[in-house]
Design a protein that fits this description.
The chain has 331 residues and is an alpha/beta fold. The protein is built from nine helices and 17 strands. The chain has helices spanning 43-49, 99-102, 143-146, 152-162, 178-189, 201-209, 238-243, 284-296, 311-319, and strands spanning 2-6, 17-21, 31-40, 66-73, 85-88, 91-93, 113-114, 126-130, 135-136, 170-174, 193-197, 214-216, 226-231, 246-254, 275-278, 303-307, 326-330. The strands form four sheets. Strands 3, 4, 5, 8, 9, 16 and 17 form a seven-stranded mixed sheet that branches. Strands 12-11-10-13-14-15 form a six-stranded parallel sheet. A two-stranded antiparallel ribbon has the order 1-2. Helix 5 links the parallel strand 10 and strand 11 (193-197). The longest helix is centred in the C-terminal third of the chain and has 13 residues, at 284-296. It is globular, with a radius of gyration of 19 Å. Bound molecules: zinc ion (2 copies).
């Protein structure tokens, strides 16, 4: 099978991924093999290929927003049948037995494995996964439109949930891309007013088209205080900026897997029971709930499509904020 393989992380401008012919994987017991139709691009892929994250194994095939067709079943696999369309997200497996798994926090599992990180992911024609960690894709979505739901969407949903925002309240989104453009839509569906903070012109234009209440830059002060906010951009300097416009007891959720240092700040910005919390990975329950909600809304994903062998160029575009919302590789 063809795959885009990472041997040594380096800046994406130096083309770290190379097209390689790899053996097509065989599904083990309880696993399914999926013929990949497309795979979404995520900032985590960028952090992987550039080496911002410690990589547990090399070489590795990145990609964790996979949409494809089940084409082989391992021994004992019985949830799906050949021909079913499934999605595979970041959470590839858990141990089902550590303290976190037992507390319903399998996203924090001590032995979690992540797709395109611990195991080969979706920048390839085939992949295998434990059938308990794959999900049916609602029919309302095309393959390409479904791909961004699998990380941008699911993580966005968990961030939204953990921000504690309630219907009718004001939600701020800092940084706008694949995840924020989906959160904006379901937050509006749930009756929230959404305030979008971004500098990039193509992002502002899309936020406006998706009926954001207000669009501005992080340094600006919106007309109303925010009840909750989510930072998607990996910029710690935003934290005090957000607290400045967050109401008492409001929550700021940090959705990124990495973030630059948070500057020291005056305690009064946090006082009055404001909460800052990070969001890490997601649970299978998040994935199921979100895919159902996505079909119900139904969410419109704005995608830009690239060929598999253009993965380097696609990640370069993502890095330069040159993609309006979500990028997708098509096999
Ligand atoms: Zn666990
Ligand atoms: Zn991701």
């Amino acid at each position: 099978m063809r795959a885009m393989l990472l041997d040594h992380p380096r800046p994406v401008e130096n083309f770290p991924l190379r097209l390689e012919e790899l053996p097509t994987p065989t599904p083990g017991p309880g696993e399914i093999r999926v013929r990949v139709r497309c795979c979404g691009l995520c900032h985590t892929d960028l952090h992987t290929v550039e080496g911002d994250l410690q990589l547990p194994r090399l070489p590795v095939v990145p990609g964790h927003q996979i949409v494809g067709i089940v084409d082989a079943l391992g021994a004992g696999a019985n949830i799906f049948k050949e021909g079913d369309r499934v999605g595979i997200p970041w959470l590839h497996s858990t141990d089902n037995q550590c303290d976190y798994c037992r507390r319903g926090l399998e996203n924090l599992c001590d032995h979690a494995q992540f797709t395109g990180y611990h195991v080969d992911g979706g920048y390839a024609e085939y992949t295998v996964v434990d059938e308990n960690y794959a999900y049916r894709i609602p029919e309302v979505f095309s393959d390409e439109n479904a791909a961004p739901l699998l990380c941008a969407g699911i993580i966005g949903y968990r961030s939204y949930r953990l921000s504690g925002v309630r219907p009718g309240e004001r939600l701020g989104l800092y940084g706008f891309g694949a995840s924020a453009h989906l959160v904006l839509q379901f937050a509006r569906y749930q009756g929230c007013e959404v305030y979008v903070f971004t500098r990039t012109a193509i992002h502002r234009e899309l936020a406006q088209r998706l009926a954001a209440e207000w669009v501005g830059s992080a340094e600006e002060t919106p007309p109303q205080q925010l009840d909750a906010a989510i930072i998607f951009a990996p910029a710690g300097a935003l934290v005090p900026q957000v607290l400045r416009v967050l109401r008492k007891a409001g929550t700021l959720a940090l959705a990124g897997i990495t973030m630059s240092s948070i500057p020291s700040m005056d305690y009064s910005l946090l006082y009055q029971e404001r909460v800052i919390r990070s969001v890490a990975n997601s649970t299978r329950q998040d994935a199921r709930e979100f895919l159902q909600l996505a079909a119900q809304v139904p969410l419109q994903t704005e995608v830009e499509i690239f060929g598999l062998e253009q993965a380097n160029q696609a990640l370069q575009a993502l890095k330069k904020s040159g993609i309006k919302a979500a990028g997708v590789l098509r096999m």
